[in-house]
Amino acid sequence: MIPTKAILLLSCTDTLGVVSRISHFIFERGGNIIDLDQHVDQEEHRFFMRVEWSLESFSIPASDLHEAFTPLAKEFKADWKIELNGKKKTKVAIFVSKYSHCMIDLLWRKEAGEIDCEFPVIISNHPDLEHIAKNHQIPFELIPVNKENKAEQEKKEVELLKKHKIDLVVLARYMQILSESFTAEFPNQIINIHHSFLPAFIGGNPYKQAQDRGVKIIGATSHYATKDLDEGPIIQQDVTGVSHRDSLNDLVCKGRDLERIVLSRAVKLHLEHRILVYGKKTIVFEK
Amino acid sequence: MIPTKAILLLSCTDTLGVVSRISHFIFERGGNIIDLDQHVDQEEHRFFMRVEWSLESFSIPASDLHEAFTPLAKEFKADWKIELNGKKKTKVAIFVSKYSHCMIDLLWRKEAGEIDCEFPVIISNHPDLEHIAKNHQIPFELIPVNKENKAEQEKKEVELLKKHKIDLVVLARYMQILSESFTAEFPNQIINIHHSFLPAFIGGNPYKQAQDRGVKIIGATSHYATKDLDEGPIIQQDVTGVSHRDSLNDLVCKGRDLERIVLSRAVKLHLEHRILVYGKKTIVFEK
Amino acid sequence: MIPTKAILLLSCTDTLGVVSRISHFIFERGGNIIDLDQHVDQEEHRFFMRVEWSLESFSIPASDLHEAFTPLAKEFKADWKIELNGKKKTKVAIFVSKYSHCMIDLLWRKEAGEIDCEFPVIISNHPDLEHIAKNHQIPFELIPVNKENKAEQEKKEVELLKKHKIDLVVLARYMQILSESFTAEFPNQIINIHHSFLPAFIGGNPYKQAQDRGVKIIGATSHYATKDLDEGPIIQQDVTGVSHRDSLNDLVCKGRDLERIVLSRAVKLHLEHRILVYGKKTIVFEK
Amino acid sequence: MIPTKAILLLSCTDTLGVVSRISHFIFERGGNIIDLDQHVDQEEHRFFMRVEWSLESFSIPASDLHEAFTPLAKEFKADWKIELNGKKKTKVAIFVSKYSHCMIDLLWRKEAGEIDCEFPVIISNHPDLEHIAKNHQIPFELIPVNKENKAEQEKKEVELLKKHKIDLVVLARYMQILSESFTAEFPNQIINIHHSFLPAFIGGNPYKQAQDRGVKIIGATSHYATKDLDEGPIIQQDVTGVSHRDSLNDLVCKGRDLERIVLSRAVKLHLEHRILVYGKKTIVFEK
Predict the structure, then answer these.
(1) Fewer CB atoms near the end CB (10 Å): N or C, chain A?
(2) Is B253 on the interface with D (CB under 8 A)?
(3) What confidence tens digit (pLDDT) does each residue in D128-178 have?
(4) D37 touching C, CB under 8 A?
């Protein structure tokens, strides 16, 4: 498929003329800007931009775009990437354990056309959800993990991800902590859902922690996974009210409705190249 | 005070190069873009933009800016305006009747530095809130209105607004319907708060209507006032949950918390030149 | 299965001693109240109550409960019913057309144990979702409807519902309007989801209506279906923010997340006997 | 003023017949229950109840009520209290420093009839808000606090509170930490507002902490003050969305809208005797 749109994600030190020079680059080649969003971090003097333009009347082939833009990017000493829609779909691996809600939500959104990607493989440390993968004709790889075999099994997982040329890993309530070497292999390419409004209730059993503290609001947080558990850059959060009437099970049920939506939103934002990670934080150019 | 920032609000038919040409206009005169937001209405093929830039190293005086930009604007057949901060504060007239919450909220936000404007006059058809105006050293003009004297009293109001060089009228739960000739005098310069989530419950006593219908959510809507009552372009809306336990008075109380916040937010957005009206709708370039 | 809990739903004219007499009725038979919620409509002088108690040490058999309570209910001239858990599961028929999200959500919640019911049949006027019914081993009945055959097809539907002894019909984005005779057959036993925050945007294509009006919030409403389209007693509502950036398709996507949650919540409340209909409104004894 | 309503707040070990016995106590004396809410903590086997009834046709004088109920309360070994409306208004002392928004909100709500209490005194460690106290004719006591004089100044504060017979202390963004001896003097009678969604961002400068962590939601929490800073029983929480565009000052402004509402709601719930503290948590019988 021939790409019809290009998306540039860029950050650099804030200087005069970045918007002008980049929009001119697009304009003089016949590109029509569909969406441009930018942000200046006044404290860090850092400039961030996302620009999406139509390649319909673009004067150079999409395949030459990267090379053509390089000199300008160098001038601004920018961190940048250009994504072309339609070149190939992003390949997403879902990791699950026993809870199905996040996975079902992702699968349904793909089928409904809400998110645009491929799911070449589902990896799980438990066999429970295999039938759902089967119903959706997606290979299901069972890789049980325990303390003894963890390093070895992670190696298998990484091999599988490489074999399937995976671009993004989604931890859809995957109940294993990934090792530092695993996360280092996929920087800003692993999205996790944590079932609390981080940084409250880091670690295990956040709903129990929430109940014990007597909070009146619970939440869920999607973030990029890094070596520091539950400390990665936050992408999306949402919350809902609770009361003394809610049992632990009620919190779990209410939380599930947050988790699947907060995770799916993060995946969609990532797939649409709307997220820039800077330090421990994200710039999310939401629609 | 010498302006330090300029804000351009512009809309035109969507064509190639608008962003490029305008950002170049700013760049070649030494302006540093602080914030740029744009939107293309794909159905209407209409382009909307708000761009804010620093005049610190700008090569032409702020007073020449309007003239300098005119040729470019003409080329794009744009609707546009340029606002300069610091030239003069926007002069806002508050209209009230008996409810104080919206007015108190606006006055407090000005004093807290949240909104940047002047309140040269408060106009009311009832004497009840005069003491609050007094506490804030703002002239309070009592202009009682009834069916017989309405036209005449509106004339007085318009004269007062002109005398005080008012730029914006805020109807802070003002319980009189303005005539068509009044609203025509101040196009997109009158902000009203309606105590329902429009278009539900148009007209009088929306909380009673809400209770009778048994809704589980009530809301408030700020909008520009036009000749068509409760039909003007919506700026902001917010809602809150209610239940069978809420009496009519409870709805009124819950609603007040929405009204003041939804009205103040709209006023702030207007004062920061973040709203473009197009047809019956608004483009709100929120921060 | 032997019932372990009883739930009484009752409404009557507000008089002295209702709570006392009813709680005494339960106490003197050894019942332990698990949950009691009541409400007095001060304007209508009407009393509403839901009380749930354990039958563990109850001195009379569950099967005699209805008869035992009748004299007291008569004394208060009450509208009432007693539900016994475990006696039999509520039988729910899902009606769908082409959109799958609400149906998938209901099926998933049943499997996750969030709602307690049986789905003996799925009825649709389109064949599109048959595979999903199949994956869940639920009979799928295709009953296409057009202007000519409507009365006849509805008759078939009612026969199917009777055959399966259906207690509750859930219109999970079923795109046909039910006739008055159909709704009359199942009073307060048909739950519909309307894709707007009623009473705004009654009728067809509410998302288009919302976009045309330029609202900043969209919603969804679950309600009991009555002969008056979109006028039935509201059970649940929820909303989400939108902006000028949202295309019609974006509104539809955002709306789907509301629809499935608002519909499922209503079904759960109905299944747990937490809803009392009074006139055109509901008393919802939420947990 | 003769009391027209009584409110019983009670907790005890969960046993058979509590609701029945208590509602019978009220019924046999001619009391009409206006509102009854109860809760059983299934894990702790603890029963909680709030019941409000009309004294209009009550057969014993309000002044004898406490004595009359004592035997029944003893039987259940209950923690309990009975409040009579109209006997005297709750006396509330507001503590402030430099931020006015929470105080203004409380004062306005009293004047609007939303909360029912007296404000006999406002205490502050800074002189900044004296003019507001004056406008509302409330004595303003300036008690500057520093490390050296803290113990001594707290003593003065406690004396003032005793002199004014204060029932409730509201820390309306009071920027001093109260000593353990101070909080011990007023158990469950000091309500504080913390400007984060606790337990996230305990301690100083929570908005800066929130910005540094890159959260997408900020919140506010009202709670009873105990010797453990920011660890007291939570009464109310609310949140709002933020993004990378929000400067620290934007967070502070958005937070203020949460703080005043979350604090005022807690004060209202306390004044209406809707809060039961149990361990480190609250049971809030919301309307």
Answers:
(1) N
(2) yes
(3) 999 999 999 999 999 999 999 999 999 999 999 999 999 999 999 999 999
(4) yes
CB D104 to CB B104 under 8 A?
yes
Which residues of chain D are in CATH 3.40.50.170 domains?
Answer: 91-284
Question: What pLDDT score was predicted for residue A166?
Answer: 98
SS3 D17: coil
Q: In 10 A of CB B281, how many CB atoms?
A: 17
What one-letter code names the amino acid at A130? E
Question: Hey, what are D188's tokens?
Answer: 């469950």
Q: Is C114 on the interface with D (CB under 8 A)?
A: no
Mean pLDDT throughout B169-184? 96
With an 8 Å Cβ cutoff, are B199 and C219 in contact? no
pLDDT at D86 over 80: no
Residues of B in contact with D108 (CB under 8 A): 100-101, 104
Nearest by CB: C281 against B42, B214, B237: B214
Tokens 């009584």 map to which residue? D6
B191 near B212, Cβ under 8 Å? no
Note if the bond before D199 is cis, omega within 30 degrees. Answer: yes
At residue C187, does pLDDT exceed 80? yes
β-partners of residue D6 are D53, D84
Given this model, what pLDDT does residue D264 score? 98
Alpha-carbon distance of D11 to C26, in angstroms, equals: 20
Active-site residue flag, D212: no
With 0-12 / 13-18 / 19 or more C-beta atoms within 10 angstroms meaning exposed / middle / buried, residue A200 is buried
Residues of chain C with CATH 3.30.70.260: 5-85
Measured distance CA(A8)–CA(A31) in Å, rounded: 13
Strand residue runs (E) in chain D: 5-13, 32-41, 46-54, 79-84, 91-96, 118-124, 140-142, 168-171, 190-194, 217-224, 234-241, 275-278, 281-284
Bond prior to A199 in cis (omega within 30° of 0): yes
Peptide bond into B199 cis (omega under 30): yes
Chain A contact set for D263 (CB, 8 A):
none
Q: What is the mean pLDDT of chain C?
A: 96
CATH number at C5-85: 3.30.70.260
pLDDT greater than 90 at residue D229? no
Tell me the pLDDT band of A110, cut-offs 50, 70 and 90.
Answer: very high
pLDDT tier at C64, thresholds 50, 70, 90: very high
Provide ipTM, 2 decimals: 0.95
What whole-number distance in Å separates Cα of residue B77 and Cα of residue D145?
A: 64
Asked whether residue C86 carries a pLDDT value surpassing 80, the answer given is: no
Answer yes or no: is pLDDT of B203 > 90. no
Q: Are C263 and C172 in contact (CB under 8 A)?
A: yes
- Is D243 within 8 Å of A282 when comparing Cβ atoms? no
CA distance B137 to chain D (A): 12
Question: What residues have CB less than 8 Å from C179, skipping those under 6 apart?
Answer: C150, C151, C154
- What's the CA gap between A59 and A57, in Å, rounded? 6
Q: Which tens digits make up the pLDDT trace of A194-239?
A: 999 999 999 889 999 999 999 999 999 999 999 988 899 999 999 9
Q: How far, in Å, CA of A51 to CA of C96, rounded?
A: 40
Question: Which residues from chain A sit within 8 angstroms of residue D219, using beta carbons?
Answer: 217
Catalytic residue among B35, B37, B64, B230: B230
State the chains in contact with D (3 or more Cβ–Cβ pairs under 8 Å).
A, B, C
CB burial of D77-106 (b: ≥16 within 10 Å; e: otherwise) equals: ebebebbbbeeebbbbbbbbbebbbbbbbb
CATH superfamily of D91-284: Formyl transferase, N-terminal domain (3.40.50.170)
CA dist D262 and D175 (Å) reads 17
Is pLDDT of A13 > 80? yes
CB B280, CB C209: distance < 8 Å: no
